[in-house]
Write a structure and sequence with these properties.
Elements (H helix, E strand, L loop, with lengths): L4 E4 L3 H12 L4 E4 L4 H6 L5 E3 H9 L4 H6 L1 E3 L1 E6 L2 E6 H5 L3 E3 L2 H14 L3 E3 L3 E6 L7 E5 L5 E5 L2 E4 L17 E6 L3 E8 L8 E3 L6 E7 L2 E8 L10 H12 L10 E8 L2 E6 L2 E2 L2 E3 L5 E2 L7 H22 L3 H4 L1 H23 L7 H16 L1 H12 L6
Parallel strand pairs: 1-2, 1-12, 2-8, 5-15, 12-21
Antiparallel strand pairs: 3-7, 4-7, 5-6, 9-10, 10-11, 13-19, 14-17, 14-18, 15-16, 16-17, 19-22, 20-21
Bound molecules: flavin-adenine dinucleotide and 3,4-dihydroxybenzoic acid (DHB).
The site of 3,4-dihydroxybenzoic acid has 10 residues, from β16.
């Protein structure tokens, strides 16, 4: 089998890349380990930057995000029991959209299949070969047991943080920039009405909490926990008690309801350098991970593949590899800005289990500075709603 661009992984990076390439008349095949149902049901991100939404709309896959998602013009930073609004629309004239990642994936898969795209779900034993040649190969076993060798011009490694693509860059060439945080996020989905009109990022002496939403009747919430915490060991009452004390103040209370999904997520920052090796290009979580506090992961995956699609367009129209060779340098400028923003939001809002009373007071000083200064709030608004996609 042959294609122009072989894509490993049908997450936001892989699916969006195949769509952007199709728009440019470039063929691709996606090789994916999971089933379509599993992909469409995994609960992950919730926040889309304005640029991501605009790109989805331009590509004809933004309709449901517009009708079923919700525009948010600000967030609340809550500390010392008081809420402080960061007014995105007023400060930078931009907004974000609450529209879950699995719905974005559902829309992308439907659009790609309707356009006749070749997506192979439930593949196993995926291997990358000869990535430094100009005919790299993705070998894989299909769901029915057939072994396939897919010869490509270029391979896009879009297989997330646990994928195989990154490992095709030899350790002697690769630098893994890595930081683990001494806390995780306990995430829940609950049947309840919204407790507040906008997302709440809460700092408290008991630790961080994030109050987000999915639909008028389903709410998404997170609280900082030990990364080794066993989510199943917690009763609903204990979870609500923990959340309530972290957002308490000014008489505010969360509206409680039945908790029907729970999990603990680790928090890490990671960047793989280089993002390119021979004809292999990494994009999205395969190349980098951010802690979720800044809501950047999915958006960064989309930004990477836009840079890659433009570089591939130039390659196929001119025959020059110049833009492809610059892919890593171009994409990583945004990656490191997002790394900094995600680390900053995380360190400003979470309680360091090894920290001192000094650290807690320093965080409060920082939160006062951000919320009381137009310059401070504007930086947060600019970064959260997303830098222009041309960057
Ligand atoms: P993935 O979504 O991980 O997709 C990779 C795909 O590759 C998967 O489908 C996988 O099955 C497949 N794959 C893996 N290995 C192989 C293999 N060997 N062969 C073939 N296929 C393979 N980001 C935000 O922007 N905003 C948020 O609000 C936000 N909140 C989050 C909340 C949570 C709870 C979590 C977990 C993450 C959150 N993120 C958020 C991060 C976001 O979900 C990820 O950054 C995003 O999914 C990255 O997309 P991707 O396509 O690079 O990788
Ligand atoms: C959600 C996740 C995030 O990481 C974040 O910063 C904001 C919202 C969410 O799942 O809704």
């Amino acid at each position: 089998m042959r294609t122009q661009v072989g894509i490993v992984g049908a997450g936001p990076a892989g699916l969006m890349l195949s769509l952007l390439l199709a728009e440019r008349g470039i063929d691709s095949v996606i090789v994916e380990a999971r089933s379509r149902t599993a992909i469409e049901q995994t609960i992950r991100a919730g926040v889309l930057e304005q640029g991501t939404v605009e790109l989805l709309k331009q590509c004809g896959v933004g309709d449901r995000a517009m009708t079923e998602g919700a525009r948010h013009d600000g967030i609340e930073l809550r500390f010392r029991g008081e809420g402080h609004r960061i007014d995105f629309a007023g400060l930078v004239g931009r907004s974000v959209w609450l529209y879950p990642q699995h719905e974005v994936l559902t829309d992308l898969i439907a659009a790609r299949l309707a356009a006749g795209a070749d997506i192979r779900f439930e593949c196993s034993d995926v291997e990358l070969r000869e990535v430094t040649s100009d005919r790299p190969v993705i070998a894989f076993t299909e769901a029915d047991g057939t072994r396939v060798e897919l010869e490509c011009d270029v391979i896009a490694g879009c297989d997330g943080s646990a994928g195989i693509s990154r490992k095709s860059i030899p350790a002697s060439v690769r630098t893994d920039h890595f930081r683990a945080y001494p806390f995780g996020w306990f995430g829940i989905l609950a049947e309840a009405p919204q407790s507040a009109p906008e997302l709440i990022y809460a700092h408290s002496e008991h630790g961080f909490a994030l109050i987000s939403t999915r639909t008028p009747t389903v709410q998404r919430m997170y609280f900082q926990c030990d990364p080794e915490e066993d989510a199943e060991a917690w009763s609903d009452d204990r979870i609500w008690e923990e959340l309530q004390k972290r957002v308490a103040g000014n008489g505010f209370r969360l509206i409680e309801g039945r908790i029907f999904q729970r999990s603990v997520l680790p928090m890490r920052s990671y960047v793989c350098e280089p993002m390119q090796y021979g004809r292999l290009f990494l994009a999205g979580d395969a190349a980098h991970t951010v802690p979720p506090t800044g809501a950047k992961g999915l958006n960064l995956a989309v930004a990477d593949v836009l840079v890659l699609a433009r570089a591939l367009e130039s390659f196929y129209s001119t025959g020059s590899t110049e833009r492809l060779e610059n892919y890593g340098a171009t994409a990583s400028r945004r990656v490191w800005r997002a790394q900094h923003f995600s680390w900053w939001m995380t360190s400003m809002l979470h309680l360091d289990p090894h920290g001192s009373p000094f650290d807690l007071r320093r965080q409060l000083g920082e939160l006062e500075s951000v919320t009381s200064s137009v310059a401070g709030s504007t930086y947060l608004a600019e970064a959260y709603t997303g830098w222009p996609l041309s960057l």
